[in-house]
């Protein structure tokens, strides 16, 4: 029984450690480059980290909060037309909160949790920014400013915000809503889903049916014209050749019997074919011998 329990405990511990290793944790790998900028060699980055400096207007840290934000394609599945999303689209904190964000990127690409509009005297370019190539976890801390304001949070990788990775963070009551926050506010450019699948498929099949009719009516006209032109071309050249050769042939066959004329013509044909065959075999020999010369070198 004890053995069984031990085995069970070991299995639980093992499976827990396997689960915990689903993504790379960058927290212990980061190097402090100063000014709140931390980086590691595995592509993790924190910018605007501030764990101790109070923003102007904050007498003290009002609250200490920790949040975990997941990012990935799967969180966009509930938002039609979107490709990437955070698992949370709206955050709300008291002014002067010390906030630690644990950012878990679940995709096999790079994502960011980037916050804009912070006071620039404290946060370079007014940004607090977590970034990592996933699947990975990265953490950072900032102290939120005083006052009611709505901050933009997004992923700044090209097109990721437009594809849905956008949220808003309200400090206090905020100062309004930002557009195109999936599931929260209306899109600036709404997608058009008016056409039903049946209507679209009917349109496509109607277009497909219309195409062969056009081809069928056009094709015979083209071939008819082609046949006509071929026949007339052959006829014209045959006539011209006949007219040119007529005096020569008349001279050659003068006084010959019909059987003799035919025999002579067959003889010419034989000689003609023989010379053509000779010419072709000569050409083939040349090509083959050329190949033989080249092949050993290559
Ligand atoms: Cu992204």
Which features would summarize this protein structure in a list?
eight-stranded mixed beta sheet; binds copper (II) ion; 3 helices; alpha+beta; 298 residues; disordered C terminus
Question: In what order do the strands lie side by side in the largest sheet?
Answer: 2-3-4-10-9-12-13-7
Contiguous low-pLDDT stretches (5 residues minimum) are 16-20, 214-227, 293-298
How would you spell out the order of helices and strands?
HEEEEEEEEEEEEEHH
Helicity, as a percent range = 25-40%
Number of helices: 3
The portion of residues forming beta strands comes to: 15-25%
Produce a short descriptive summary.
The chain has 298 residues and is of the alpha+beta class. It has helices at residues 2-20, 197-252, 258-297, and strands at residues 24-25, 31-32, 38-39, 45-47, 63-72, 85-86, 90-93, 97-105, 110-115, 128-133, 136-143, 149-154, 166-171.
């Amino acid at each position: 029984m004890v053995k069984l329990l031990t085995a069970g405990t070991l299995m639980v511990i093992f499976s827990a450690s396997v689960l915990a290793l689903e993504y790379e944790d960058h927290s212990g790998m980061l190097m402090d480059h100063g000014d709140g900028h931390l980086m590691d060699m595995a592509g993790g980055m924190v910018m605007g980290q501030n764990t101790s400096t109070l923003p102007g207007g904050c007498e003290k840290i009002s609250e200490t909060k920790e949040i975990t934000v997941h990012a990935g394609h799967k969180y966009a599945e509930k938002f039609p037309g979107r490709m990437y999303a955070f698992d949370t689209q709206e955050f709300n904190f008291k002014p002067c909160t010390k906030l630690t964000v644990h950012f878990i990127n679940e995709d096999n690409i790079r994502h960011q949790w980037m916050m804009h509009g912070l006071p620039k005297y404290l946060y370079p370019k007014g940004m607090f920014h977590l970034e990592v190539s996933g699947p990975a976890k990265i953490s950072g801390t900032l102290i939120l400013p005083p006052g009611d304001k709505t901050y933009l949070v997004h992923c700044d990788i090209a097109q990721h915000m437009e594809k849905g990775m956008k949220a808003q963070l309200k400090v206090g009551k905020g100062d309004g809503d930002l557009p195109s926050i999936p599931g929260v506010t209306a899109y600036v450019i709404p997608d058009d889903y008016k056409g039903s699948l049946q209507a679209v498929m009917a349109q496509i099949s109607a277009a497909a049916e219309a195409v062969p009719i056009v081809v069928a009516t056009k094709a015979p006209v083209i071939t008819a014209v082609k046949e006509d032109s071929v026949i007339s071309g052959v006829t014209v050249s045959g006539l011209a050749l006949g007219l040119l050769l007529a005096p020569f042939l008349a001279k050659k066959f003068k006084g010959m019997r019909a059987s003799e004329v035919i025999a002579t013509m067959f003889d010419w044909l034989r000689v003609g074919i023989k010379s053509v065959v000779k010419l072709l075999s000569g050409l083939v020999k040349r090509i083959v011998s050329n190949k033989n010369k080249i092949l050993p070198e290559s």
